Amino acid sequence: MWELTFPRTVVTGEGALEYLKEVEGKRALIVTDKVIHKLGFVEKIASYLEKAGLEVKVFDEVEPEPSVETVVKGAEFARKCGPDWLIGLGGGSCMDVAKAMWVLYANPDVEVAEINPFTKFGVREKARLICIPTTSGTGADATWAAIITDVKEERKMELPSREIVSDIIILDPELPKSMPPSLVADSALDALTHAIEAYVSQWRNDFSDALAINAIQIIFKYLPRAYRNPDDKEAKEKIHNAATMAGIAFGNSQVGIAHAMGHSLGAIFKVPHGRTVDLFLSYSIEYGAREAMGRYADIARAIGVEAETDEEAVEKLVGTVRRLDRKVGEPASIKELGISREDFEKRLDDLVTRAANSSCTFMNPRVPDVEDTRKLFLYAFEGKKVDF
Amino acid sequence: MAKFPSEEWIKLFKDEVNKNEAYADAAKDWEGDFLFIATSDDKLDKEVVFWVDLWHGKCREVAQLPSREAKKTEFVYEGPYGNWVKLINGEIGPIRGLLTRKFKLTGSMAKIMKYTRAASELVGCASKVPTEFL
What is the pLDDT of residues A239-276, one digit of tens each? Predict the structure, then answer.
């Protein structure tokens, strides 16, 4: 038996935001950050919700790599205003906070770290969730987990509950239009990492495969266009859709060591999520290929790589990923992120411990032990081909 | 070769845990004891209850108990006998076992989720015990 969890409704295409005019309810709480607020998206969304007859409140205190404290504060705010809709508006941080807040809003005695797939939280007795991503990568709109940082422990917690999947996702191509090229690259490569890791995960299944492989094809085809030309509406819309498809895929099959290592590096050195997970993608393919050669070769062939053997296909896939990274200005090693050897070595034990204990590590097709995890970090620091 | 489930088997399991350096490292901060319960199914007539006391990367004590009421522990991990066989043989993982409802956990999930590697190493120890199933 394997249970799959999907968002109930996905509204996509030009004018998708207008769907909000049809939402039925009394009060909506928009969960967002100050940047999104300044960009004017909040007013636009509030105006649609008000047309539907809803009173609108705003919590705009979400920070990048959001903390437990922000979730607690947001849930207290929600309890004061009593929304029957939560609206996660922004990048992954805003949507993750909305999801975690939802649990605490419905269960004042529950702590953030206690969100888990086995407890019944009854969140829909209090409210429902609409996610509106403004970037194209995190997939947080489509997954049933929230990534929240425990600041004291410098640890990103992966908090899953099948209840916290969106009721409605709105993918309006108007929203990601204003993303600068570096954010287009960071976020789309995050989505690419989701899709590739979902396709090779130990928990992969027929449903996640279908969405993952399509998302991979779209991102390889359209990312260079979306990065080069900020006005390429078609490319940006395709990437926006692919990010959610990858989100549904990995939400139902999980991700692997590129994420385990990326979360660890991001929590300790405060590097944007998309950039860190993508940095480890090519190394994770080289490492995982020993156990999942055929799966990686499938991906290579799906994006048009011609090869006589699976080994050749995987080698070419790694090359294609690295070329794409270079094309869109992404770093190829930890060193290139600007982290000094001294700082890296000082925190290496912490990096290894966090990655080795991440639940993502155990979904990887080849599960590294602590020693291999350390070697992977060292190789990724130098930019060396994984040969073990 | 020890029969599963039996007092002899759980003692061999304890020895395997205490030999395992990877477990010692992954669970170096762990404090908490378990009841491991194999509930009855078509192969097992009556449920079997093991008490396993895990502390700072070592297994301090184990015992087969007469019933689940015999000891109050921080965690209870339980499932039908047939699913324990699959777990010990490495056919399902400890967390996947929970997600697919083959096993049930009572106790703080927040605490368990921080020790995924330790859980995986514990199952590895169980797989190393030379086992004869019913």
Answer: 999 999 999 999 999 999 999 999 999 989 988 888 99
Scan for tokens 């994006």, then name that residue: A303
Of A114, A369, A370, which has the smallest distance from its Cβ to B110's Cβ? A114
CA distance B7 to chain A (A): 30
Domain boundaries defined on chain A:
9-177, 179-382
Nearest Cβ partner for B120 among A116, A119, A362 = A362
Q: Do B116 and A362 touch (CB under 8 A)?
A: yes
Question: What is the crossing angle of helices A370-382 and A341-356, to 10°?
Answer: 140
Percentage of chain A exceeding pLDDT 70: 100
Size of interface A-B (CB pairs under 8 A): 46
Confidence class for position A152, pLDDT limits 50, 70, 90: confident
* Predicted model pTM: 0.90
Domains of chain B: 2-127 (3.30.1050.10)
- Least confident stretch, A263-272, B58-67, B70-79: A263-272
Distance of alpha carbon A364 from alpha carbon A41, whole angstroms: 38
- Tokens 């279908």 locate to A210
Residues whose CB is less than 8 angstroms from the CB of residue A159 and which lie 6 or more positions away in sequence, other chains included: A100, A112, A113, A115, A116, A145, A146, A147, A148
Nearest to B47 by CA among B77, B14, B12, B91: B77
**Interhelix angle for A206-228 vs A181-200, to 10°?**
160
Q: Touching check for A117 and chain B: CB below 8 Å?
A: yes
Q: ipTM for the complex?
A: 0.72
User: Candidates 3.10.350.10, 3.30.280.10, 1.20.1090.10, 3.40.50.1980; correct CATH number of A179-382?
Assistant: 1.20.1090.10
Q: Is A3 on the interface with B (CB under 8 A)?
A: yes
Write the CATH number of the domain with boundaries A9-177. 3.40.50.1970
